[in-house]
Amino acid sequence: QVHLQESGPGLVKPSQTLSLTCTVSGGSISSGNYYWNWIRQPAGKGLEWIGRMYTNGVTSYNPSLKSRVTISGDTSKNQFSLNLNSVTAADTAVYYCAREGAGYYWGQGTPVTFSS
Amino acid sequence: QTVVTQEPSLTVSPGGTVTLTCGSSTGAVTSGHYPYWFQQKPGQAPRTLIYDTSNKHSWTPARFSGSLLGGKAALTLSDVQPEDEADYYCLLYLGGTRVFGGGTKLTVL
User: Taking CB atoms and an 8 Å limit, are A104 and B51 in contact across chains?
Assistant: First the structure.
């Protein structure tokens, strides 16, 4: 069964770029009919879909974040990444990665806090 | 921007049945919106219950079922158990992107 694990800095400063990585085991990011997603959840609030990358590398993003987001894959490491630039306090959240296709498999999430 | 709507909160008695719904501001929800349903308990990551309208994961209890109902996606819980108290989120495919509903807080009382 596929397993996903998020990693990255727990603290980010204003105007910096947030970079997170999702390491996938039990399946390849470059094969199968799967979408590799990023989702976030501010404390006490609902889930927000950030964007996703298909197996062939084609991406789609939340229109409200599209100008600041890039999702990309590294097939040699079987990882996919999220870059979110020009961060502000509003980007503080738990960030999840997930595989979509024949179900939806979540990572455990990683908290990201804004720090001045 | 497209809005996905869910009941903010619902209350159900143990052993009862409750239906949560998921609507779209763009019109009727169909199987082409590939509805998903997730359960989230405090301090935990979401857990997928239903995908593509009505398909269950191996870990989804039999008392959970997904369907289309009255132009919306629906999640029905039968014989509700105390451990079903949680937040429930739906996810729809809309306009080439995915959009989450605001979530339903289900209380078992």
Answer: yes
Sheet holding B64-69, edge to edge: B4-5, B18-24, B72-77, B64-69
Residue of B nearest to A94 (CA): B45
pLDDT over 90 percentage in chain A: 91
Q: How far is B80 from chain A (nearest CA, A)?
A: 23
Q: Of B6, B27, B15, B3, whose CA–CA distance to B108 is shortest? A: B15
CB contact under 8 A, B38 and A49: no
Nearest CA in chain B to A107: B45
Q: Which of B8, B2, B25 is nearest to B102 (CA)?
A: B8
Q: One digit per residue, pLDDT tens: chain B, 109 residues?
A: 789 999 999 999 999 999 999 999 999 999 999 999 999 999 999 999 999 999 999 999 999 999 999 999 999 999 999 999 999 999 999 988 999 999 999 999 9
Beta bridge partners of residue A110, listed in sequence order: A95
Q: Which of A33, A41, A45, A47 to mutate to test the interface with B (most CBs of B within 10 A)?
A: A47
A103: chain B residues, CB-CB within 8 Å: 48, 51, 55, 57
SS3 B45: coil
Given pLDDT bands bounded at 50, 70 and 90, which one contains residue A85?
Answer: very high
Q: What is the pLDDT of residue A68?
A: 97
